[in-house]
Design brief:
With 282 residues, this protein is of the alpha/beta class. It has 9 helices and 9 strands. The strands form 2 sheets. Strands 3-4-9-8-5-6-7 form a 7-stranded mixed beta sheet.
């Protein structure tokens, strides 16, 4: 293990905190805001210190940081300034900010970060502490990887290969075929030929992905199915007790960026496990 793990928390600006305070006189409001800001700083310092202690116990080099400002932009600026290789965020925050944490922070990371993003989710069937205990007890993880033959999905497979041979229990290669709509005036016979080509291509892509997964997993499964990508990935993660969904991302333009943000956000919002969105190296 090399490199440094930066444990970062961001304290929102006083204006955001003031929204949660009871109306009162202006001077008292300023005092309340300052006290609340100090309390958040103290709590943030404890949170990163506790995380650092846990990670250091695993042999990692750790640095802690308590920042001030708008959470999303601060994290993006920090990641760029420290040239990190991956950003890991939870699927929800703490306290008053819990409800909109994924929308305001994780989605921003997924859409705009120049590096891979790991969104960690709680399991649906148990508390976070129990989920962590179960995960630590596993010798190997079950992974679901989205594949479509693109550079991004190739990067997702490369990311899995970093852990070496037979690092995973079950590996599922999933390709969601395009949802077809018969264009007005198109001959149904020609449409059937087009769909047949799409299905054959999806199966070919899955077979190629399975070949890459075979050295990495004890068991390999391939699925090519007509489905919405997020629905397919989520259903396969539930079926195979997935611990991690891995999907690639390649940003080349506004439309592609929008689609990447949409699919990865949908998966990160409702998946039953953690989701890793891998950015190909430039």
């Amino acid at each position: 293990r090399t490199g440094t793990v930066h444990v970062v928390t961001v304290v929102p600006p006083p204006g955001v905190m003031m929204a949660s305070l009871q109306p009162t006189g202006s001077f008292a409001l300023v005092q309340q805001s300052e006290l609340l800001w100090q309390a958040h700083h103290e709590h943030g310092a404890k949170v990163v210190a506790d995380a650092a202690e846990l990670l250091s116990g695993e042999g990692l080099t750790v640095e802690t940081h308590v920042l001030d400002g708008d959470i999303g932009p601060k994290l993006l600026d920090f990641a760029q300034g420290h040239e990190v290789g991956m950003i890991a965020v939870g699927s929800r925050g703490e306290g008053a900010f819990k409800a909109f944490f994924l929308g305001s922070v994780a989605r921003r990371m997924l859409a705009y970060a120049d590096v891979s993003v790991l969104v960690v989710r709680d399991r649906e069937d148990c508390p976070p502490e129990e989920a962590a205990r179960r995960l630590m007890a596993k010798s190997k993880l079950n992974v679901v990887v989205a594949t479509d033959g693109s550079v991004g999905s190739g990067a997702a497979l490369d990311a899995l290969a970093v852990c070496g041979e037979k690092a995973y229990a079950t590996g599922v290669a999933a390709c969601a075929e395009p949802l077809c709509i018969l264009p007005p005036g198109m001959d149904p016979v020609e449409f059937a030929k087009t769909y047949g080509y799409d299905h054959a291509e999806a199966e070919r892509i899955v077979e190629e992905a399975k070949k890459r997964l075979e050295p990495l997993c004890d068991t390999v499964v391939g699925v090519a199915r007509l489905a919405k990508p997020s629905d397919l990935l989520e259903s396969l993660a539930r079926k195979h007790d997935g611990d991690l969904i891995v999907m690639g991302a390649t940003r080349q333009g506004f439309v592609e960026r929008f689609l990447i943000g949409s699919v990865s956000y949908e998966v990160a919002t409702s998946a039953p496990c953690a989701v890793l969105v891998v950015r190909p190296e430039k």
